[in-house]
Each structure stands twice: as structure tokens, then as C-alpha cells.
Design goal:
Helix content is 40%, strand content 13%. By secondary structure, the protein is an alpha/beta fold. The protein has a four-stranded parallel β-sheet, with helices on both faces. 38% of the residues are buried.
Length: 182
């Protein structure tokens, strides 16, 4: 099994650099998986494959059925990464789990504005380290071709809160609500 977390998230790179790192790099992972007879690849995709700000403003929830229409080059590079995995699933039988991850941070906290306040949209797509570990553990057991949008159980979620439970059987335990100043 391979857990493919590598990639470039900076959207300020030109398309050639993003393509080289996120698309060509992902194809290299799958080529190595075929060569080494790997049975499953868990791919760290992103919610940025969706037009998140537009969806957030409309109060529409992202689910596994929400069309992938990116709003930037980074999102497009991840859409292509997912499609590569689907192709290798069909052609080589590799199990693929595409995790469309929300905001994951090193300190485990939602992203903040320059003024130190938590950003409202970041609160909507934040995923705690605890919930991420639950999702990863469930992904290890998943079979076939699965794509799942992932956030924690936030108060005003960008993702349908039942999605992770429906697809992976995971009960989310964290919420960004505790970071909201009263």
C-alpha cells in the first residue's frame, strides 16, 4: 500500500511546476505501484477541486457527487491526480482512495487571518488531526475506487457531515466551533 501525501499546494507556481509536481509526480507513484504490485493507493486530494467560495456562499454542501470544477490551477492539478488513480484502478486493478481533504494544518488548528481571527470559510472546511487519523485508518480498510470529501464535524460545514460516515463509516468527533470567539 502507498499513502501518497506528496504534492505542491502553492497556487502561485506556474502551471508547468504544478503539473510536474502534482500530475507527473502522481503518475510516477502509480507507475511504481504497478511495477511493485501495490494493491492500494491512498491519494491526498483536496476540496480545492471544487469552487469552495462559491459553494460556501450558496450554502450548498459538498458530497461525493459534487462535480469537480476547480477554481485554481492547484485544484485542477489534483483533479488530474484523481483521474490518474481512476485510470490505474480500471486498467491495473489497484484500489484507490481519493481523500478530498479540507484544511489540514501543522498545529491542528483552523487557519487564521492576518489579524489572528479564524477565517469563516476555513472554519467550514477544517479537519482536525484526530478526525484525519480516523479517516486514514478507515481508508486502509476500504476497497475498490472511493472518493470522499473530508472535513471535521464543523458547525457550518462546507462538506455534507454525513459523507465521511456514509462512505468510510467514520464518526467525526471534532468541530471548529470551539475556536469561534463569543
Amino acid at each position: 500500500m502507498v499513502i501518497h501525501l506528496a504534492g505542491e499546494k502553492r497556487n502561485n507556481l506556474d502551471w508547468e511546476d504544478l503539473f510536474k509536481l502534482n500530475v507527473h509526480g502522481t503518475r510516477n507513484v502509480y507507475e511504481a505501484a504497478v511495477r511493485e504490485k501495490v494493491k492500494k493507493v491512498i491519494f491526498a486530494s483536496t476540496l480545492h477541486i471544487h469552487q469552495m467560495r462559491k459553494l460556501f456562499k450558496s450554502n450548498k454542501k459538498i458530497s461525493e457527487k459534487t462535480p469537480a470544477v476547480s477554481s485554481n490551477a492547484y485544484g485542477l492539478s489534483k483533479i488530474l491526480g484523481e483521474r490518474i488513480g481512476e485510470d490505474y484502478h480500471v486498467n491495473y486493478g489497484i484500489g484507490v482512495v481519493n481523500l478530498r481533504l479540507g484544511s489540514v494544518t501543522e498545529d491542528g488548528l483552523p487557519l487564521r487571518n492576518k489579524d489572528g481571527n479564524y477565517r469563516e470559510i476555513a472554519m467550514a472546511h477544517w479537519i482536525s488531526n484526530i478526525d484525519l487519523m480516523k479517516i486514514m485508518n478507515a481508508s486502509l480498510k476500504a476497497e475498490g475506487l472511493i472518493t470522499v470529501p473530508c472535513t471535521s464535524a464543523n458547525k457550518k460545514p462546507l462538506v455534507d457531515p454525513k459523507c465521511v460516515k456514509r462512505i468510510l463509516g467514520v464518526n467525526l468527533s471534532s468541530s471548529s466551533e470551539k475556536y469561534i470567539k463569543s
